[in-house]
Amino acid sequence: MATTKPTRTGNRRDFVRTQVPYVERISGAAILLLIVGIGVAIAIKGRHYNPDLYDVRPDSLNSTASAVEGKSQTLKAEGAPPAAATTTAVAETTAPGTTPTAQTTPASGETTGDTITEPQTTPDKPATASAEGDAGAEGSSDTPKPAPIGEPLVIALDGLKPMSDTEFYNSDTLYEKIDGRSPAYQSFNVTGLRCRTFNVLAAAGSFVDVYEYRFDTPVDAFGMYALERDPKGGPLDFIADGYSGEMGYFFRQGTVYVQVMASDQKPETLALTRAIAQNRAKALPVDDSGLAGRRRMPADGMIAGSVSYVPDNAQGQSTLHDVFQAKYGKAGEEIPFFVMVAPPADAAKAWQSFQDFCSRFGKTEVLPDVSGGKLFRAQVFGKWKVIYVREGELGGTFDVADPEAARTFVEKYLRGEIK
C-alpha cells in the first residue's frame, strides 16, 4: 500500500526545536533580571523627592542678564561685582517725629558693622497712556497715579462738560485705543493721540468724542486723512482739508488729523459737534508746509472726496514722489489729474524719464508748448496720458479713454482757465 506524504501548509516548518541551548537560557534570564532591576530603581526614585532637580540655578542665566535702565535689576550683569550687602526693611514702631531706618545685613562671607540708611524713593516714570486726576486724593490707592503726557484737551463751549479725563497714547501704544487701525497710522509716522469725551448738557445721555492724532509733518497728517476719507462726505466751509459725515466732522489742520464724532443725531448733539469742530480748527496751528502740490490742485470740477496723496512711486515711476491727485468731472467723464512740486531740475528729469517709460510700453507724441509748459501725450495699455512740466511743477491727466478730453483739461489748466 502506498504511503501518502503530508502536504505543507502556509509557513509551517518541518523541523521543531525541542531543546533551548544553555547560553540562550542564561542570556534570557540576565535580560529579565535587568528589566526587573530598572523597574525597582524607578519605583525607589519616584518615592523620594530630590529638590536639586527642581531648583533654579541663577548662575546659568548670567550670560543673558543685562542692565535695565530705570528699573531694578533682577539678575546681575555678567562681570559685575557682587553686591556688598542686602538691605532689609525693619518693621518696628517708632515714636512720633522719629525717622524710620533700614538695617543692613552683611552679605555672605563678609563682616561689616551695622549701618543706618535713610529710606529712599524713586520717582515713578510716567506711563505712556494715562488719565488726569489728583494722586493721593481721598479714596485713592497708596500708589500715586502717573502724570499725564501733554496738555489736557480743554474746550470752552457752553453746554459742554468733560465726561472723562484726557487720554494720551504714543505710536507704540496706539493699538490700545484703535487696535486694528494703528498700523495704517504708523505708516504715516503718527507721533501721538490725545482724546477726550464730552457730555452734551442739553441732551440727556448724549456725548461727543474728540480725537486729535498728531503726525511728524502736515503731509503725513494729510496722507492719513485722505486715506480714511469717506467719499460720501460733504465739504466743510471752515477748513480746506475736511468733510462732514452723518454724525461727525473730520479734517486736517497743520500736523493734526481731527475726528469729532457725535453719539447720536439729536439736533442739540449735532449742533455742538459742529461747534467743537470749528473750535479745534481755530485752536490748532495752521501749517501747510510740504503741501504745495495740494494747493495747486484746481477746485473747479473736483469730485468731492477724490483727493489722495501718494508718497512714493506714483504712476509706477520712482522719480514721482509726494504726489497729490484727484478726479474731475469734465466732458462727461471722470478725468484723473495729478500734481507734483519739486526743484525745477528734478521735475524736468522726472518728466523726461516718464516720457521714456511711455515710449517703451506704448506710443508717445510731443505736443506744442502751452503757457511755458512742455507736454507729451502717450497711449499706454489702451489709456491716454497728457503730462506737462513747468517751473518745478509736473503733472497731468492719466488713464483717460478720450485723448482729446485729456489734452483739453491739461491745456486749460496751464492757461489758468481751470482754477
Characterization of this structure:
A hairpin with a 2-residue loop joins strand 15 (362-370) and strand 16. Residues 68-141 have low confidence and may be disordered. Among the domains are: 160-283, no CATH class; 292-414, Protein Transport Mog1p, Chain A (3-Layer(aba) Sandwich), CATH 3.40.1000. By secondary structure, the protein is an alpha+beta fold. The chain has helices at residues 22-46, 175-178, 182-187, 218-228, 267-283, 292-295, 344-361, 403-414; strands spanning 85-89, 102-106, 116-117, 160-162, 167-170, 190-200, 207-215, 234-235, 242-244, 248-253, 256-262, 308-310, 323-330, 333-341, 362-370, 373-380, 383-390, 393-400. The longest helix has 25 residues, at 22-46. The strands form 3 sheets. Strands 4, 5, 6, 7, 8, 9, 10 and 11 form an 8-stranded antiparallel beta sheet that branches. Strands 12-13-14-18-17-16-15 form a 7-stranded antiparallel beta sheet, sandwiched between helices.
